[in-house]
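Saturday, quiet lab. Running sequence design on the structure tokens for the scaffold JK sent over.
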């Protein structure tokens, strides 16, 4: 009997170690949530940027936080996105939400998009979390290493390898799974933080808009679809510039 219990204890210990190891190795931190997200989340890609117009890759924080802002077209796109979102919010969500929380990459093109988007909400007197947009470095563009500053046709070279190995760092790029890990950690943190800000008397949720970049948001969408890794991010419908899409956590 003692031996039997010892064997059971060993098996339980092994199972716990395996579970902890699996949790530690998980790159999609939305997979192991014990409860649904309490707030609703939306992905907003930045408007057309000067880098888009020049058809170059702009992923170096030292450059992209100060250069490659929005083109004239991009500014108009961002305003329209804000106007449309504000209209929809007032029609359907204003009685069920505290307001809108906007978190943005600190790259110039994303900051400008978030600012113009927020201005349209202010015009409609929609409450903003912290009364402004919040900068978040974990929403920065995926770093493309030695390809940075080169033609955007080179994205495909990286994406072709992502499908086979989402952990690769070919050309010195940040891996797709690294992006998945940092963004899903962020979503969990934002959800908890926004819950903490809810009134105990009227626990209304926030609509949370994350303003970021093409690859970052393609990869984040795989997380909400509960993919275990980011290998299939290019199989999803492309999020065009200044397009906003609700992120729904599957299952």
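Result came back. Writing it out in full:
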């Amino acid at each position: 009997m003692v031996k039997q219990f010892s064997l059971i204890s060993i098996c339980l210990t092994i199972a716990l170690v395996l579970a902890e190891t699996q949790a530690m190795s998980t790159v999609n931190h939305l997979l192991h949530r014990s409860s649904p997200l309490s707030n609703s989340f939306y992905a907003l890609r930045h408007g057309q940027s000067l880098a888009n117009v020049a058809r170059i890759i702009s992923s170096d924080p030292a450059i992209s936080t100060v250069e490659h802002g929005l083109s004239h077209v991009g500014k108009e796109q961002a305003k329209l996105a804000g106007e449309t979102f504000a209209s929809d919010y007032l029609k359907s969500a204003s009685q069920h939400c505290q307001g809108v929380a906007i978190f943005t990459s600190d790259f110039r093109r994303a900051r400008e998009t978030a600012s113009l988007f927020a201005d349209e909400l202010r015009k409609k007197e929609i409450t903003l979390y912290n009364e402004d947009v919040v900068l978040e470095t974990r929403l920065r563009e995926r770093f493309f290493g030695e390809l940075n500053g080169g033609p955007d046709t080179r994205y495909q070279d990286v994406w072709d390898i992502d499908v086979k190995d989402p952990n690769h760092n070919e050309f010195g790029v940040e891996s797709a799974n690294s992006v998945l890990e940092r963004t899903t950690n962020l979503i969990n943190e934002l959800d908890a933080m926004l819950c903490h800000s809810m009134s105990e008397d009227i626990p209304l949720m926030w609509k949370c808009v994350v303003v970021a970049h093409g690859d970052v948001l393609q990869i984040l969408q795989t997380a909400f679809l509960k993919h275990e890794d980011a290998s299939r991010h290019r199989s999803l419908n492309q999020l065009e510039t200044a397009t906003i899409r609700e992120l729904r956590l599957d299952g």
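Notes for JK: Residues 1-5, 10-24 have pLDDT under 50 and may be disordered. Helices lie at 2-25, 50-54, 61-64, 72-92, 108-123, 155-164, 176-196, 214-224. Ask whether to fix the surface positions before the next round.
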